[in-house]
Structure prediction request, 358 residues.
Amino acid sequence: MDVHAYYDLPRPQQTYFICSIQRSGSGWLSNALTQTGIAGQPVEHFNIRPIEERRKVYGLKDDDFIGILRVALQLSMTSNGVCSIKFMYQQMTWLVDNLRILTGDQQTPECELLERFFPHLQFIYTYRRDKLSQGISAHKALQSKVYQWYASPEAPDYALGSKWHFSTEKPDVADRVAFNVIELDLLIEHGILHSEINWQRFFKRNHLNPLTISYEDFAENYEGTLKAILAYLSLPWPDTEPLPPALIQRISDEINTDWRTRYMAQKGWLADDNLRTEVNAGEYSGALLIRLMHERGRLRHIISVRENEIANLQAEAQHQTETHHQQLHTPAWVRDHIPWRVLVAALLEKGRKWIFRK
Prediction:
């Protein structure tokens, strides 16, 4: 069935999705691609906040998924027919779930279903090697509510409802944020890392090999990275013509630097210079703590007991939660963000303080 004709939808000539994780530079990258004028207009078109704003502006009813999809296709395309959309993982599962409801198709693999509505679909995956800096950026943005700085006082149509700060002046958020090491740990371990795992599972089950872009590589080689992406999309840019700058600017400042210093100071196990270097290089993860404690010999025989207890607790909690959600027929995007993970993480943090107490 021709879904574009059947549902009266705009028909892209080419599509690509940017699969992203919070604070991985995907907003900066997406705006840089938008500024080229030939690579679509990738923002989070299926984020709940833009959806709510578009319902008001376009007069859409709450249950009008076709209307939401139609507007997203219109706003995401450039004149050459290239459609581009940025996704967080939960937005992707929301879209797939609603496409299944719309079509009544519960069997077709995700990617195949998506291609019916988004033809010639390609995938770009953005991530950040330095998880500590990424966590600090997320910790700060969640408190300040300033997620992106768009260096212009006027918002473009495609950014309707976005969480951007529109101003020629860099936003000052110092009086709106406060450092909390436990919240930062939770963001890294059960926000950022969990999202990375979900995207890798999505790519694996759909047999995808996306173009992978790290924040660090993009920051180091802005123009080279953009040209590589455009070449991947078969949208080559003339070598003699400079690429336009992105209007979304980096908003890290002395607060980010100070929080990194405070985090390193509060983590006593980072006193070793070699271990500090490893974390500074972006190798921080939840599992790293356990490994470092092994190396420093501070857990002795107790660690094996604690690991087993934690593994059993997680397995039991996951089994109970999945069983409960299966009974309720809960959508996939809810199952992937169930609250027991946060509760377990908080308990683990308290357990670590008890185990490592001096």
The chain has a mean pLDDT of 78.
